[in-house]
Amino acid sequence: MKRVEVKNQVRLSLAKCFELVLSGIRYRLFRAAITVVIIALAVTFLKTMLSESLITRRIAGAVEAKALPRETLRFWVARMTTGLRHVNLTRQLDALWEERQVHGNEAWAETPRAREFLAWGGLTEEQLKELTDLAHEERRYLRYFQSVDEGERSQMVGRARGWEIFAALQDPNRLQTLKDRQPSMSRKLTDIEELESFLNRWSQAMNLREKIVVGHAEAIAATAEEFRRQDAREVLAAADSETQKRLARHGFVLSEAEMQLVREEAQYSLDRDRITSMLDVKNGFIRSRLANRIGQKPMDTTAAMLLAEVSSSSGAEWLLEVIREENENTRRRNADPKRQGDPEPLIPEIGLDRQRIMEVGKRSMDQQHLREVEALLLAEAGGHADRADEEKELGMFGFTSRTLSLIVVSFLVCTVGIVNAMLMSVTERFREIATMKCLGATDQFIMINFIMESCMQGVAGSVIGAVLGFLLGLLRSVVMYGGLAVQNLPISEMFAAAGIAMVVGVVLSALAAVYPAWVAARLAPMEAMRIE
Amino acid sequence: MSKTQNASAPATVGKQQEGQAGDRPVIIRTMDLKKYYQMGEVVTKALRGIDSEIYRGEFICMLGPSGSGKSTFFNMIGGLDSPTSGRVFIDEVDVAQLNAIELAFLRCRKIGYIFQTYNLVQYMTCLENITVPMAFAGVDPDEARDRGMALLDLVGLADRWFHKPIEMSGGQQQRTAIARSMANNPAVLLCDEPTGNLDLRTGAEIHSVLKKLNSERGVTVICVTHDHRLINMADRILWVRDGGIERIADRHEVTVETGSIGGEENE
Question: What is the pLDDT of residue B221?
C-alpha cells in the first residue's frame, strides 16, 4: 500500500494569509465595520478610564505642590498658637516615622520636626524613635478598627472611637472580650499578641508624649511673649534669620526652605485680610458700592467677589478711588461748621498699592480654583481623604474596584460581541470554508485565517478606540479641572496607556476568535456539497 | 494490505471487467465499504458494503434516487468523509489511514471537485480562484498565474480572467470551477451535478469541457448526474440504490433516450 508523502502541503505564508483575509474583509465590509465598532467602544472606554485616572493623579500631585505654601503657613500658625492634641501628635509622629524611612536613622534626627520634638520633650533619640514606631502602629490599628463595620467594632471595643480605643483596651476585661470576639469577625487581626505588646508600650509611652505636649505648650507661651503677642502671620511674614534664631530659642525649627514658603504666603494672607476687611467698614459702605458695581444685593456679596473684582487693574483702581472719594467727602462734611456731634470716622488706609491689590486678587482666585479642584479630587476618591492617600499607592492607574468592574464588564460585553460576530461570519461562510478545505486548505490554515481576521479588526478597533479614548479622557479632565489638566498632561504615561489599551483590545479580539475559528476549522469539507 | 489481496477481493459488480483490470490500472477501489449514521436511537445504513473499482481515465456517471446513498458514496471516494468500516483506495492510497493534513494533501493534488453551485470564492477574480489550490500546493505565484491562464484558455475564459464570479454567467462560473479543479493536475475529477443549475445550452459547454479533459488529459471523471446528455458521454454507468450498487453497465449496453434511460427510470 502506498502512503501519501506529505512533503509540500505548504503552510501558506502569513503574508498570503494576510492578503486573503484582507480581501475577505473588504468583501464583507459592513460586518467587519460592526465588529470594529464593538472593539473600538470597549477600547475607548478603557482608554478613557486610564487617561482620566492618569490626569487626575498628575493633577493631585500638582495641586499638592501648589497648596504647599498654604498648608505650611496653616501648619505654622496652628503650632505657634494651639497646643497639640492626641490625634495631631500621632499624625505628626507618624509623618516623622515616614521621614525616618526616607532619611535613615542618622540624618533623621537632624530634620526640623525631629529636633523640635527632641527639644520640647527633652527626649533621647531612642525614645523619639519608639514614639514614632508607636504612632505608626497606632495608625495601622486604627485603620483596622475603621475597616470593620459598626456592629463588629462595638462588640470588640464598645463605643470607644479613635485613640480612646487604645485607652479602653488597657482594661484587661475589655482586651479579653476583644480576644474572644476575634474569631467571629469578618476581618481579623493578624497577630493578637502583637496588639497586646503594643498596648503595653503605648501606655508606657504616654508620659513621654505628655512631655512633648507640655513642652510645646510652654514653647507657645514663651514665643507669644517673645514676639509681644504679635499675630503669628505677622511674625512669619517678616521672618528673617533673626526670627529663626528667636524661634529656635523655644524649640521651633523654621528651616530656610519653610521660611521662603511661609513668608510670602503669610504676607499674602495678611494683605488679603486687609482687602476683605474693607467690606465691613463704615456700616458696609464698600459692600454696598461693590454690590452696586457687580449687580448683586449687598447681603449676597462675599469676600471672594471683592477679591475677584479687584483682580483686574480697573477693579483695583476702583477700590482705591472709592476709598479716596469717600474719605474726601467725609473730611468735607466733618469740616462743615454747621455740623453737630462727633466727627464722622474716615475709612482706614488700605496700605496697599494698586499693583499689590491686583496681585492679591489674582492669587486669591487661583487659590479658590485650587480649592475647587481639591474638593473634586476628594469627591473622586469617594470623599475620604484617607482613601485618597491609599489610592495613590495603587500602582500606575489606581482604579477603584468600581471602575475596575465596569471595565471588566465592558470587555466581557465586547468579547461576546466579537464571538457573536465571528460565529455569524463562520456560519455565513460555511460553504466557502468547506470549499477551501476541498481545495486543500488545512484546519490550521482556516484557524489562522479567522484569528487573523479578528486580529485585524482588533487592531483597527483598538487604534480608533485609543485615539477616541485619549481625546475623551482629555476632554472630560479639561471640563472637570480646567487649565490644570492641560498644564499637567502626563504625555508619556498617556501614550503608554494607549499602548496598553490597544494591546488589550487586540489580544481580546484574538482570544474571542478562537472558538469561532475552531468551529470553522472542524467543518467537514462535504458541507461544500450542501445546497441552500 | 497488498495489491494481490485487493485483486482477489470479491468484485460482484466488476466481474465483466476482470479481464481489463490487468491492462487498465485501478484508480479508485472500494472494499466492503460501509457507512452508518447514528441518528439518535436509530442507525441509518447509508452504505451497506460496496465493492467497486474505477479505472484510470474512465468517464463514469452515477445515478440513483435521493436517499440511495449516492452522495455518501461520492463523499467516500472523494476523501471527504471516512467510512464506518471497509476501505477506500484512491490511487493506491488507503484514505481511512490518512490524518487531516494528509487528507488535505490528497484533496489538493489528487482530486478535483466540481459542485452544482460552483462554490467560487466571491471576493476573488476568476484567475485568483484558480490559483488558490496552487497556493495550497506551494506553487510559486508567477508559475501559478501562468498555469492558471493556461487552464482558463483550456476552458475558453482566457479573456475573462479579471472578472469576479458575480460578473459571470452560470456557465462561465462553472467553467472557472472546472479550471480550478484542474489546478494541480488531479487524477480524478469528482462532479456533483455539474449541470444541475444550468440550462441546456450552457450545460452542453460543460459537457464538452469535461469530455475534452477526459479524452485529452486522461483525467478520470466521476459524475453524479441526472443529465441524460452527460450520461450519454459516459464510459460506464453506475446505479446506486439502498446503500448498494444495483447495476453497472457499459454505455453501449444501455439506450439513452431523451426523458428515459434503458427502462431503468420508468418503473
Answer: 95
Q: Which value, to the nearest 10 degrees, does the dihedral of the CA atoms of residues A233, A235, A241, A244 take?
A: -80
pLDDT mean over B138-156: 92
- A437 vs B107: CB contact, 8 Å cut-off? yes
Q: Do B102 and A6 touch (CB under 8 A)?
A: yes
State residue A50 phi and psi, 5-degree precision. Answer: -60, -45
Report yes or no: A447 and A521 within 8 Å, Cβ to Cβ. yes
Give chain A positions within 8 Å (CB) of B98.
Answer: 4
What does the pLDDT read at residue B9?
40
pLDDT at site A278? 87
- Cell numbers at residue A187, please? 476581618
Q: Enumerate the residues of chain B whose CB falls inside 8 A of the CB of residue A2.
A: 91-93
B249/chain A closest Cα distance in angstroms: 26
As for the ipTM of the complex, it is 0.84
CA R_g for chain A: 35
The pTM score is 0.72
DSSP A12: P
C-alpha cell at A408: 471588566
Residues 199-218 of chain B with CB under 8 A from chain A are none
Is residue B10 scored above 50 in pLDDT?
A: no
Q: To the nearest whole number, what is the mean pLDDT of chain B?
A: 84
Low-confidence residues in chain A, pLDDT < 70: 1-11, 381-400, 531-532
CA distance linking residue B235 with residue B256, whole number of Å:
13
Q: What is the DSSP string of B111-129?
A: EEEE-TT----TTS-HHHH
Helix (H, G, I), strand (E, B) or coil at B221: strand
Indicate the length of chain B as a whole number: 267
Query: Residue B127: pLDDT band by 50, 70, 90 thresholds?
Result: very high
pLDDT 10s digits, A18-37: 888 888 888 888 889 988 99
Contact B91 A2 (CB under 8 A): yes
Look at residues A272, A369, A311, A353 and name the one whose alpha carbon lies nearest to residue A73.
Answer: A272
The terminus-to-terminus CA distance of chain B in angstroms comes to 42
Average pLDDT over residues B133-157: 92
Say yes or no: A529 contacts chain B, CB-CB below 8 A.
Answer: yes
Nearest residue of A to residue B98, measured between CA atoms = A4
Residues of A in contact with B75 (CB under 8 A): 526, 529
Provide the grid cell at A456.
485585524
Instruction: Spell out the residues 6+ positions from residue A413 whose beta carbon is closer than 8 angstroms to its own.
Output: A42
Kindly report the backbone phi and psi dihedral angles of residue B115, in degrees, each rounded to the nearest multiple of 5, phi listed first. -110, 155
pLDDT at site A389: 54
Chain A residues 357-416 with a CB less than 8 Å from chain B: none
Contacts of B97 in chain A (CB under 8 A): 1, 3
B46 touches chain A (CB under 8 A): no
Least Cα distance to A52 among A409, A374, A475 occurs for: A475
CB atoms within 10 A of CB B43: 11
Q: φ, ψ for residue B69 (rounded to 5)?
A: 100, 5
Identify the CA nearest to B114 among candidates B200, B26, B173.
Answer: B173
Q: Do B192 and A529 touch (CB under 8 A)?
A: yes
pLDDT recorded at residue A98: 86
B70–chain A Cβ distance below 8 A for any pair: no
